[in-house]
Amino acid sequence: xxxxxxxPGPMDPLDQLETxxxxxxxxxxSAASLADLDDVEAVTVGKRSPIAEARRRLAxxxxxxxxxxxxxxxxxxxxxxxxxxxxxxxxxIEEQNALLAAEAVDVTLPGRRPKRGTTxxxxxxxxxxxxxxxxxxxxxxSGPEAETEFYNFTAMNMPNTHPARLEQDTFYxxxxxxxxxxxxxxxxxxxxxxxxxxxxxxxxxxxxGRVYRRDxxxxxxxxxxxxxxxAVDTDITFQDLKGTLDYFAKEFFGPETETKFLPSYFPxxxxxxxxxxxADGRWLELLGCGMVNxxxxxxxxxxxxxxxxxxxxxxxxxxxxxxHGIKDIRSLYDPDVRGLEQYR
Length: 344
Prior knowledge:
- The protein has helices at 13-30, 34-45, 50-56, 66-102, 121-134, 149-152, 190-198, 238-253, 294-300, 316-324, 337-340, and strands at 139-140, 146-148, 182-184, 203-212, 223-233, 259-266, 269-279, 282-292, 308-315.
- It has two domains: 13-102; 121-343, Bira Bifunctional Protein, Domain 2 (BirA Bifunctional Protein, domain 2), CATH 3.30.930.
- The longest helix is centred in the N-terminal third of the chain and has 37 residues, at 66-102.
- The protein starts with 12 loop residues before the first helix and ends with a helix.
- It is α+β, with helices and mostly antiparallel strands.
- The protein has a seven-stranded mixed β-sheet with strand order 1-4-5-9-8-7-6, with helices on both faces. A two-stranded antiparallel ribbon has the order 2-3.
- The chain is rod-shaped and about 125 Å long.
- The protein is built from eleven helices and nine strands.
C-alpha cells in the first residue's frame, strides 16, 4: 500500500483537496486486500483524513468562498468513495475465489467410509432365533415388562406357595393399592396366557423379551433376555415338540448338532423336559420345554380336552455363551469395544 506521508500538511483547503485527488487513486489501486483497503479508506476519507481536516477548517474560509470549497470537498469525497467501493468489489471477488480454490474438494476421490457398526451379540442371537421360528410359521409377539402377579404366576400354574413368588427371587413394584400385585416379569411365559386370551387355536407364537430376577453370578444376571415359544392345536404331541426344537438346534448351531431331552419340572408344562446339545465335547443345557399344562388352558378359556400344545423358553445369553464359548455372562455386558467387535 502506498504510504500517506507524502500528503501535505495544513495549506489552502483547495490545494490540499487537489493533492488528495491526485494521490488517492494510486493508493486505492495498490491495496492488495480488503484490510489494506480499509487502511487506505481511513487515511483518505476517514476521521483523520485531509477531507475531514478540510471540513473542520471550512469555518475559516471566507464566507463568499465557502460554498465553492464545501462543494469541492464533497466532490472529492464522493469520487474517492466510488473508487474505494469499486476496489472493494474487486478485492471481495478475488478473496472469495481464492477461498473457494483453497477449499475445493475433488469429488472424484473415494469417500471416507465410517466404521461399520452392528447390533449387540445378544440382539443378534435373539433376531436369529426369531427368524428360525418365523420360517416355521410362528408369529412374533411382545408383552409388558411390568406384569401382574396373575399373568406372571397364577396363569402359569404357580400358586401362592410356589418358591418363585418369594421376594428374594422377584422385583416387586410399589404401584397401585397392592404393591405385591405388580412386578417386573421373571420370564416371558406370561405372554402364553395373554396371547391365548386374544387368539383361538391354532396358535404358533414366539416371544423375545427382557426379564428380571434377583440373580447375579458368572452365569446369571438380574436383567437378561428370554425367547418364549408356544404351539397349540388339536393334535400336537411331544414328538412335535422334539422335532421342532431339534430342527432349531441344527439351524442355530449347525446341521451336525446332537440333541437329547431329559425329564424336568416346570409348573406350566406336563410332562416337562430340558433340551441339551452336544458342544465343546460335552452336553450343555440349552432350554426348558414341555407339553402345556391343562391348568394353563383353564386360565385362558381353552378346553383342555380339545387342545394340546407345547411351550419352550430359552435364554439368549445362554445360547450366545454356548455358541461362542463364553465362560462369564458378565462379559456380554462389558462395554469394551474390543470385545464387542469380535461378534460383527
